């Protein structure tokens, strides 16, 4: 940590630029320090490689010690603190303040108009329950915490593709229900923010996304958090992702892919990779369901196919059908921290998209009629051409 009280009760912040190494040595010689949270003794550590910081002298029950801090984490925290201090629209920027009412010490706290904003720079994987608990504690004080991920944990797999773990997904956020999610990360080595925006998941870990890199001094806080999503530019990468999926045999099958694959073989004598293009819609709210896009959309197509032409059905009929699959464990729902939207929302969004493709017609708010049959092809080239047409619908 960077802050501690000296013998006079003055809060000392060793991350401030005013401190030279010689000044810190003199400060250590003349003072003893205590932790601002637990009041136990801490020592000032000054190194040539590791950033100067305070550390508890003995193992204590301090609730705010948390996970060990790396140099990467400490450098990033200081960068973010200094960056926010320079912005005239933000006030009362504090490094590691202790909020006694909720027993939390965010990495940074500042005021943005009437709003108090905590920032947590998270560079290591911690128990998801702890992360959720921290966020809920801030909400008790009407604070909307901004979690920024250490960028080195991101795994890029292609020009517009990344792998996100279930832990990464806890950091994803959106300012608008109808927009896809974004994820903020920072790399202190590059002095840069790396933002993933318009994140559309293809499977539990694999996503197609736009990403932007900004030098920390080239962007303001307000510009950072108000990035405008642009899903159109991802469509070429999305179509390519479908093609690669069709070309590759599924060597490892999870419970959800195995269940659908078995059903297709029995009902259609077709493998999962021959699902119609209609099972690959890149919807903004696809993130609500963790199972691969083609699994849950594939099941809905099979439900609709079993209906006769001109049959009327309700949104609730389809929702209960999918809810049974969730109960059976063959469709998984994603655990999200900053999004409080039920997965039924994406089911409704999918049905409306099928109306745009003339498979369904919406008669009333929650009432649909089957208007066309669903085409199944055994020719891979036909599927490729059909996939390509998705691009023109979304571009």
TrEMBL record:
Transmembrane segments: none annotated. It comes from Metabacillus litoralis. Residues 17-64 form the Competence protein CoiA-like N-terminal domain. InterPro entries: CoiA-like_N, CoiA_C, CoiA_nuc, Competence-induced_CoiA. Coiled coil: none annotated. It comes from the Bacteria. Residues 69-228 form the Competence protein CoiA nuclease-like domain. This is Competence protein CoiA. Residues 236-377 form the Competence protein CoiA C-terminal domain.
């Amino acid at each position: 940590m960077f802050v501690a009280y000296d013998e006079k009760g003055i809060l000392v912040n060793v991350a401030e630029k005013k401190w030279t190494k010689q000044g810190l040595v003199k400060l250590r010689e003349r003072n003893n320090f205590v932790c601002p949270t637990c009041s136990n003794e801490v020592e000032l550590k000054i190194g040539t490689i590791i950033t100067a910081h305070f550390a508890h002298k003995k193992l204590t029950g301090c609730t705010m010690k948390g996970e060990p801090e790396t140099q990467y984490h400490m450098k990033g925290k200081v960068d973010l603190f200094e960056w926010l201090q320079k912005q005239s629209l933000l006030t009362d920027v504090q490094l590691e303040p202790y909020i006694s009412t909720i027993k939390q010490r965010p990495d940074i706290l500042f005021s943005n108009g009437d709003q108090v904003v905590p920032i947590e720079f998270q560079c290591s994987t911690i128990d998801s329950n702890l992360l959720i608990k921290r966020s809920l504690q801030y909400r008790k004080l009407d604070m909307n915490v901004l979690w920024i991920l250490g960028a080195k944990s991101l795994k890029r797999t292609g020009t517009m593709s990344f792998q996100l773990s279930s832990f990464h997904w806890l950091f994803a956020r959106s300012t608008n229900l109808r927009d896809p999610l974004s994820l903020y990360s920072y790399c202190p080595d590059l002095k840069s923010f790396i933002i993933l925006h318009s994140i559309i998941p293809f499977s539990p870990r694999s996503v197609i996304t736009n990403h932007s890199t900004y030098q920390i001094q080239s962007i303001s806080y307000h510009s950072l958090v108000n990035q405008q999503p642009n899903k159109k530019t991802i469509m070429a990468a999305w179509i390519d992702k479908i093609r690669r999926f069709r070309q590759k045999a599924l060597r490892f099958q999870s419970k959800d892919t195995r269940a659908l694959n078995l059903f297709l073989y029995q009902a259609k004598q077709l493998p999962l990779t021959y699902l119609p293009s209609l099972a690959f819609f890149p919807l903004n709210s696809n993130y609500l369901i963790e199972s691969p896009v083609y699994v849950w959309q594939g099941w809905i197509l099979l439900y609709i196919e079993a209906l006769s032409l001109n049959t009327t059905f309700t949104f609730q009929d389809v929702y209960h059908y999918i809810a049974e699959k969730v109960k059976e464990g063959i469709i998984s729902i994603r655990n999200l921290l900053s999004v409080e939207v039920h997965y039924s929302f994406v089911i409704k969004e999918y049905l409306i998209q099928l109306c745009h493709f003339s498979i369904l017609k919406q008669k009333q708010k929650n009432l649909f009629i089957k208007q066309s049959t669903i085409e199944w092809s055994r020719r891979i080239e036909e599927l490729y051409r059909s996939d390509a047409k998705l691009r023109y619908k979304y571009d």
